[in-house]
# Entry
Amino acid sequence: MRTFSKHTPLEYAVLYGRFLSLYMRSKMQYKMDTLLTSAAVLIRECVTVVTLYLMLQKFSVINGWDLGQLLFMYSFVFLSYSLCILVFAGVRDFQGIVHQGEFDSYLTKPLNPLFQVISRRSDLMAMLGHGGLGLILFLYAFREAGVEATGMNVLKVVLVLIGGILIQGALLLVPASLTFWLTKSSQVQEVMFYQMRGFIAYPISIYPKIIQWLLTYLLPFAFVNYYPAHYFVGVGSGGDGLAYLTPVVGLVLFGLALLLWRTGINRYKSTGN
Amino acid sequence: MPSICSSLTKFMGYVLSVNIGNMLFNVWTKVAPVLIVSFLAFHLVLPDQAYMIVLFLISLLLGYFVLYGFNLIVWLSAFWFHQTWSFMTIKNAVILLVSGATIPLWFMPAPLEKVFSYLPFKDVYFTPLSIFLGQVPADDIMLTYLTQIGGIAALHISLGSCGARRRRSLSFKEVSESANVQQTYPA
# Structure
């Protein structure tokens, strides 16, 4: 394997672009469905926002967070997830890639398999749905939440988003790596990622301690939005310094997930498709 | 193809039986564990009288068929669009919000509540839930059942009129597949 890894970063970048354009061209064979995907994702995600909005009409605050602050916090979830599936769609769909035998063909190419998993797919359409909603919420809510638009804050938001992308990418890479042991990992992914991610729609301080602990130390979704928003807005309890940790947590977690991937890939047995 | 022609006559029944099978599997693997955990962890409160549970279960069954009507409409759109993931997602999202599954209709602003109370969406989740919570007076129970049955009838009539036109060219495989491939794509 090592003898082949002579590509320069520039070559990787060019390849990434080529793979993506190929993938998008294949997607555009079904124009109607592809375009509707964005709309469907947008509508689906709007439902959770509308639910939040209607709840707040009745209760006005949730644990000290008002509507503007909650939407500001929520926008990080959409923004970071949208960029996450732009990059890590292949990791998310890895079970299918293994089942269809596509991964076998990746292994025959003189290219890092994980690079191929990442570069051969990108969920641009769903990204537009999540990202569009995230952007609308963010632009609407940051003023409402009393966050100033300074250069320093922009930099911090970018760092938080990068951290959020890495955290969610890592939490998708873990179930993807488990595919090497389990062959079918979609339920693990569902519980570990999608169900747990559902918690961070609301401030985690409303949940029992055990769930707060889980979301901070084991599956650190709280670093995607709660701790950073807490830092920007100044509402809520717990961990003032924790917001600075988002990019660090992202890097460490992604490193660990990468280790799991490296261990797992040595066990790979084709599904014989 | 003859095999498809013969399936056509019983194809609605086929999709329904696949769906009921999936539903029973989900009751066993998803509903039962959640119920047990809810009893233990959240002290789930049951209605005072046992017959209320029966009334609730009848309404729940009717709600299932209302939802099935909505599902069939989306599944049958596979004749035109071949891919139904987007429509399924939109349908699920709308039903989640409008049926009172995530927030009861009581929490909605008054004008919205009024509009939604005339639509059949509420018959899927909200009607059975209000019976369970004892919010429906005993005298009105029959009326709510009739409303649910009316919803089922309306959905199936609209389905029949649009389905009949495409029946000649329908592809059996597409529909049975779209009925099975509901949640394989977590965008």
Q: What stands out?
A: The radius of gyration of chain A is 20 Å. The mean pLDDT of chain A is 89.
